[in-house]
């Protein structure tokens, strides 16, 4: 709540198809969580793909009725730039009605500059690590594996994208980081800690919930990998660790996600093992999690591993790298390994295979922690970061006015 206990008035700018897949899903859930937390929301998406709660005002920038500007035809960069220009113009006309502006990458530059000129606090979402860091570590890992990314892949090096995003970093009053890992990548690039605000993503507890009857403990371990099967997610580390562990002799390793073709060819030998089942892209992820003992996610870089929170909600124990999210606490509700540490990951798989009491304790830890990490809880935390940004901007404006009076 803002001054006088009035709801915080948020201009939420998202340049893509709000409510579609991946970050579009994340942003939609974020808006719904903010609405549940009591924010007064004016949302400017490029396109609204999925309806929002009735108390959210939505005004798309790249669509009117059935008419839409086609992203593929125009190009994502141009579409995002157009969205940014439209939002900046709208902000000019309604400055007195906005307490804070929330922007997303590639569609934020003019909006952030306009907000700064008008004295309105403005934050930039960072759904992933610093882009320069992400490009570098993925490029290095691809070179090590001998996998070439297609030019249009999201982690292929794109100088224009990097330049735009780094300028947005500089223009934002604060960067919203959903994990400590993301914060560390910005700190290593020289950003001061006070420029970074920590918030969190979450999971939908109406979809991701535990099974009515827990899985039997007298069967082989079922391990699930869920997500895009790309180098950055570290599936190659998971498969190597699995095949080193005796768990693979009795258990099953399920892979739910779409493969980068070159990556699938590189992993062909491991994928052919009889314990490994490639399921392809699936729309029944919650049920797969309820049927699995363990979610494995050995990412080399992440923003916030949504599947970690979703797995916890289902009572599926995360085995994750330390790049994923700090909501996974080692030996409390998860097992955590350092990025690339196959030996430790294999040992952890073996430990859960052999010690089902430990598996059960970790499962119970997941279910205890899960209510703290829903999208509704994330909305409340984000609202608190808005209030912090508003307070800091208010103090900054007051200091500036005082200096002018002294001059």
Structure description:
This protein is of the alpha/beta class. It has 16 helices and 15 strands. Helix 3 packs parallel to helix 4.
The CATH superfamily name of the largest domain is Glycogen Phosphorylase B
User: Biggest sheet, in brief?
Assistant: 7 strands, parallel
Which CATH class of the largest domain? Answer: Alpha Beta
What's the number of extended β-strand segments? 15
Distance between the termini: 35 Å
For the biggest β-sheet, the strand order reads 3-2-1-6-7-8-9
Q: Return the domain count.
A: 2
The radius of gyration over CA amounts to 22 Å
Fraction of residues in β-strands: 15-25%
CATH topology of the largest domain, by name, is Rossmann fold
The total count of helices amounts to: 16
Average pLDDT value?
A: 95
Which structural class fits the helix and strand makeup? Answer: alpha/beta
Question: In brief, what are we looking at here?
Answer:
With 407 residues, this protein is an alpha/beta fold. The chain has helices at 23-37, 71-74, 76-93, 109-118, 131-145, 159-171, 180-188, 235-244, 247-250, 261-266, 268-271, 285-290, 306-314, 342-354, 356-369, 375-406, and strands at 9-18, 40-48, 57-58, 63-64, 67-68, 100-103, 122-125, 174-177, 196-198, 222-226, 252-256, 276-280, 294-297, 317-321, 335-337.
Question: Can you tag this structure with a few keywords?
Answer:
Rossmann fold, seven-stranded parallel sheet, 16 helices
Write the layout of secondary structure elements.
Blueprint: E1 9-18, H1 23-37, E2 40-48, E3 57-58, E4 63-64, E5 67-68, H2 71-74, H3 76-93, E6 100-103, H4 109-118, E7 122-125, H5 131-145, H6 159-171, E8 174-177, H7 180-188, E9 196-198, E10 222-226, H8 235-244, H9 247-250, E11 252-256, H10 261-266, H11 268-271, E12 276-280, H12 285-290, E13 294-297, H13 306-314, E14 317-321, E15 335-337, H14 342-354, H15 356-369, H16 375-406
Parallel strand pairs: 1-2, 1-6, 2-3, 6-7, 7-8, 8-9, 10-11, 10-13, 11-12, 13-14, 14-15
Antiparallel strand pairs: 4-5
Helix pairs in contact: 1-16, 3-4, 4-6, 8-14, 13-15, 14-15
